[in-house]
Amino acid sequence: MRKYYTRPCNFHYGGYAEKLISNKKALSLAGNKNIAFDKVEIFQRKKKKVVTSKIYSINEIEKLNKEVKSIVNADLKEITFKRKNICGLKFDNPQIMGVLNVTPDSFSDGGLFFDKVKAFKQAALMINSGAKIVDIGGESTRPDSKIVNESDEWKRIEKIIIKLKKNFPKLILSLDTRKSFVMKKGIELGINIINDVSGLNFDKKSFDIINLKKIPFILHHMQGTPDTMQKNPKYDDALLDIFDFFEEKINFCLKKK
């Protein structure tokens, strides 16, 4: 757990953002000169509680004490560096991901695309409407949902993946699963991205499968599992606790690479 945290704020966009950056009055977000921020909020945490939170202009950072300045500058390096393309997809502009739930019980569209023909037609509609990524899942993770057997989960999506890869060979296909068995099967059929809502917590073999094939992956945060995650969740501070979770997971992944 950290003592100090950095949050960029007071954003500017377009030509004005570029002007601020060139005049060294602001910094770019993720290397994108069309998005700039000229202030940071610094949180100080002690014994799991936020003690102070104060906003500084980026020009005031140099006046901070040595310990805080070192942490903030390290954070700003991560916040401002230009992100790499993923699967050939650039993120200098917003991109659309279509969600395809091949389940009988998902939150928004459960049962609508459980039929294989309907699922394929829905995916094709999303692609033709501008989706650059289609995220396919065979297990609902809505609140109170139950675990689906890994073999049953795979059977729900296997033929859809094959058909999509055949008909849309350039499509970036993301696989929404918590299970290493399903990940491995999907990667063998050409899945491009793994999307794990458990943040690699559900199946301890997951990262090894992903890392072996060098597949990009998406991490999420939840407390517990879908059937328990909304039953009295507790945080000392939601923002900072979730930050700690992702920092720990990212460091874990980097160390294992």
Structural account:
35% of the residues lie in helices and 23% in strands. By secondary structure, it is an alpha/beta fold. α3 (116-128) crosses α4, α4 (150-167) packs parallel to α5 (180-188) and α5 (180-188) runs parallel beside α6 (206-213). The radius of gyration is 21 Å and the shape is globular.
Jot down its keywords.
257 residues; alpha/beta; TIM Barrel; 2 domains; 5-stranded parallel sheet; 4-stranded antiparallel sheet; 7 helices; globular
What would you call the structural class? alpha/beta
Q: Say how many strands there are.
A: 9
The major pleated sheet works out as:
5 strands, parallel
Would you give the CATH topology of the largest domain? TIM Barrel
Order of helices and strands: EHEEEHEHEHEHEHEH
CATH architecture of the largest domain: Alpha-Beta Barrel
CA distance, first residue to last residue: 23 Å
CATH top level assignment of the largest domain: Alpha Beta
Could you give the topology of this structure?
Blueprint: E1 4-13, H1 14-22, E2 27-29, E3 32-46, E4 49-57, H2 66-80, E5 97-101, H3 116-128, E6 133-137, H4 150-167, E7 172-176, H5 180-188, E8 193-196, H6 206-213, E9 217-219, H7 238-256
Report a brief summary of the structure.
It contains 7 helices and 9 strands, in the order βαβββαβαβαβαβαβα. The chain is α/β, with parallel strands linked by helices and 257 residues long. It folds into 2 domains: 77 residues, no CATH class; 160 residues, Alpha-Beta Barrel (TIM Barrel).
